[in-house]
Amino acid sequence: MTKNLKLFFIFLFLLSCGYTPIYQINKDSNIKIDIINFSGDKNLGREIVRGLENFRKNDAKSVVDLDFNASKQETIVTKDKKGNATSYKLVLTVDAYITNKINEKNYEKKFTKEMTFNSKNNKFELDQLKTNLEKNMITKILQDINIFLGIIGNDL
Question: Which strand ranges, in their side-by-side order, compose the sheet holding 62-79?
């Protein structure tokens, strides 16, 4: 009985405290992205555009255009005695250029995430690992872009 009562009070406290996730894209944001242009790595660019779709659908007062250059770089960090790669470094970089359509104010920001990981004996597992790491890094870059757009929205 007391365990259920404790759980009830914890649940009630969490509901009434106004908890909202920090990195959630705010649907009632003060910024609307009108045009998104990207260059560079196409897969990376498409994922970022897909992640920013919520900013295109809202009705905000400030309308901005977003141009970005996305790049992915994979390098070998260490090799074994035979010359086979034992660890890799994956770097994702997004150079964002934001232009406010109302007052023609320009913003520029570089978002970079890097990850070092060990090689796998199975090439399929290695490719899956690279894909999963890339998706996680894209999510983190989208969170950073979301925070930056929120700062810009408060600045306008």
Answer: 31-40, 62-79, 85-100, 106-118
Q: Cα Rg for the chain, rounded, in angstroms?
A: 21
The residue length of the chain stands at: 156
Closest to 91 in 3D by CA, of 67, 119, 71: 71
Query: pLDDT for 38-89, tens place per residue?
Result: 999 899 999 999 988 887 777 777 888 899 999 999 999 999 999 899 999 9
Cα separation of the two ends of the chain:
53
For the whole model, what pTM was predicted? 0.79
Fold of 2-155: Double Stranded RNA Binding Domain (3.30.160)
